Amino acid sequence: MEYYTAKNKLILPEYGRNIQQMVEYAMTIEDRAERTRCVKTIINIMGNLFPHLRDVNDFKHKLWDHLAMMSDYQLDVDYPYGTPKKEDTTIHPVPLAYPEYNLTNRHYGRTLPKLVKAAAAYEGEDKQVLVAMVANQMKKSYLAWNKDNVDDKKIYDDLRLLSDGKLDYNEETLRLRDARDFQFNFKAKTNNGKGKNFKRK
Hints:
mainly alpha, 0% strand
């Protein structure tokens, strides 16, 4: 009895060993026309294995490429899409450069400083409402990364720093939400409404 573990490793296991053996048999056919006719039959069988992919673009092209791979690019037939080359499958994409950001306040991320500058440039009547929303979001982000309480003065100072001095507020001109409000929201999300912070009647 011959075990599969003793046989050659399948190049494309998704097609199975029978297709692999068909390709190997086609390589033994000496007559080129007969070999090409045999290969076209193999291509049709390969397509029948994945009927749900027939509408995919270049489906036939991929089948011919897979056929070449299973023959280790040694099969000499008339390829309808050009003769595949082994070098084409070993080309690796150029790695993308990882973006580097010089974040002075990493707990605010990249978006909040942009929001601060947008709020500083805003000239509408509800500017203070916008600034309050941004400042409260800054406080929420600060508490997300620093579990201890945060002094509102720290938020006002950061708001002034990130806006290049254009947003100069203090606790008298801009009131921020209490830190416990944000901490309650964190616990609510963590417990999914089922924790001890929620009392059901």
